[in-house]
Amino acid sequence: MSGASSSLLPGAAAGASAIALYARATAGFEARVAETLELLLQAVATHGVGLVQSTSLGAEDMVITDLIARHGLPVRIATLDTGALHAETLALIDQIQTRYELPVQVYTPVHDAVINFVSVRGERAMYESLALRKACCAIRKLEPLSRMLNGATAWITGLRREQSANRADVPFDEDDGQGRRKLNVLAAWSWADVWHYIQTYQVPYNALHDQFMPSIGCAPCTRAIAVGEDFRAGRWWWEDENAKECGLHKSHSNEELNTKKSGAPA
What is the DSSP letter of 151? Predict the structure, then answer.
């Protein structure tokens, strides 16, 4: 990718896998797994058919999908195909359906909206301004997400407190602002926990994680990270914003963070 760094992370050797780099058994791991399972069981009991896992197909979400499958939980699994994802990301859809024998509902943006945006603004519009990048995200992510969540009463995400400074207060259960519950069942997990689980249960994961991409989005907007960079530094790396979000998680967006800092009413 343009702008990507090939610098290795601390402790990494050329060709090292993400498991070798990140997986570590830490104190309390089994308790955190048990806590997450209990949260999922409670969610099923409370929301029934109104519950959906909205998976980005990232490492965290693959752990959640494995827990759902491993324990036979009746949870609908859905994802967004933005039309700009890496082939390695899309490959996980078939892997989930083959490995776990679970269907994955795929939501795509409105074709004409994408064509119109690209024809008017160009293929590289996201690099030109924050407003255009967010407009692209709105078409490719937010609108399809609204259809995914139509009729749902709760959705499960892979948000973790450790992911970034503006996610440091992520709760296990929150209102998504649209009358639904957003369940962040891995909120207390560390990156080491995620990869220790993947290693322990041989969970499929995105091959791009082996190329120093801990946070993976659309291909034009994702690069590898270098030594000392933030977990999400590879997302929208050309922007100066401290808290970078696409809008899928509005309660942890840059707008809200700036509002809190300014002292203005939320």
Answer: T
- Domains of the chain in sequence order: 18-238 (3.40.50.620)
**Given 39, 149, 246, 248, which residue is catalytic?**
246
- Is 136 a known ligand-binding residue? yes
Q: Check pLDDT > 70 for residue 91.
A: yes
202 tagged catalytic: no
Identify the DSSP state of 130.
H
Q: Which residues contact 214 (CB under 8 A, 6 or more apart)?
A: 59, 191, 225, 231, 232, 234
Number of neighbouring beta carbons within 10 Å of residue 170? 22
Q: Average of pLDDT values for 52-63? A: 97
Consult the annotation and say whether 5 binds a ligand: no
Residue 105 has pLDDT above 50, yes or no: yes
* pTM of the predicted structure, to 2 decimals: 0.85
Closest C-alpha among 255, 212, 218 to residue 231 = 212
Annotated ligand binding at 122? The verdict is: no
State yes or no: 137 annotated in a binding site. Answer: yes
- Rounded to whole angstroms, the Cα distance separating 126 from 124 reads 6
